[in-house]
Amino acid sequence: SITIPDSVTSIDGGTFSGCTGLMSITIPNSVTSIGERAFYDCTGLTAVTIPDSVTSIGGYAFSGCAGLTSITIPCSVTSIGKQAFFGCTGLKDVYITDIGKWCGISFEDAFATPLQYAHKLHLNGDLVTNLVIPDSVTSIGGFAFWGCAGLTAVTIPDSVTSIGENAFKSCPIKTATIPALAVNYIKNSRLKTVTITSGERINERAFSGCASLTSITISSSVTNIGESAFSGCEVLTSITIPDSVTSIGVNAFLYAGLTSIKFQGTKAQWYAIEGINGIDVHCTVYCTDGNITI
Questions:
Q1: How far apart are CA 160 and CA 181, in angstroms?
Q2: Which residues of the chain have pLDDT under 50?
Q3: CA-closest candidate to residue 275, choices 259, 291, 253, 242
Q4: How far separated are the first and last CA of the chain, in Å rounded?
Q5: For residues 157 and 163, what is the distance between their CA atoms, to the nearest angstrom?
Q6: Which of 176, 262, 269, 276 minimizes the C-alpha distance to 225?
Q7: Whole-angstrom Cα distance, residue 283 to residue 245?
Q8: Residue 177 and residue 160: Cα distance in Å, rounded?
Q9: DSSP letter, residue 9
Q10: pLDDT of residue 43
Q11: What pLDDT was estimated at residue 279?
């Protein structure tokens, strides 16, 4: 057991590397950075609480700490280096206090996030299953929620304009309220209900293969539905399309289970949509002034 004195402002690279007998450590609020390989292969460590003063965690900082079962990361942390938690196979829980700050962390790679092994993210002590990202957030960093196995519902505000690679990879999301730009990041085979809140375009193959999708609500801001956007959505039997849509890509509903389309415009507006002859679906289109069989 080690207590680092208050006079220390940084834990330099390799400081405790290979200290397999180290079981617990107390890091004071004076420390602002944890260097590369600072706790590399400290296999005896079981839990670490990083103080609010720390802003950066270096690459490989906790790599190989197989005995580590939980870690608390404060909202002061803005960057975590590559493979910082690689080999932390015993991790079960990650504790944070600010979801907005977590979204802003720069994770250098997939093993920079402890969720790669832990799979459970706790916000102020509560397991995150329904993630609501605050309106103050404009970007979500890459790998931010990779492997968050408890995450089944997510709400992303329209304020978010960028999402990093693999931000929600391997998250079993079933329900999502999101802007159109987020679709490709939350797409998975368990997805059931989606509300698109903003954006002009649903991209090509956006929901392709989402075999569990039963409900989709499309914002009136959407003007374009891309090629094969809903192909393979076998249990999607009905969809409501706003009259703002002016273009539908080829095979947009190929192999979908559609029996009806509710179009929030007139028959004339429906016929004016570019690409409707190539959507390859046989169902009834319910318009505001009558029905069309296609």
A1: 9
A2: none
A3: 253
A4: 73
A5: 12
A6: 276
A7: 18
A8: 12
A9: -
A10: 96
A11: 81
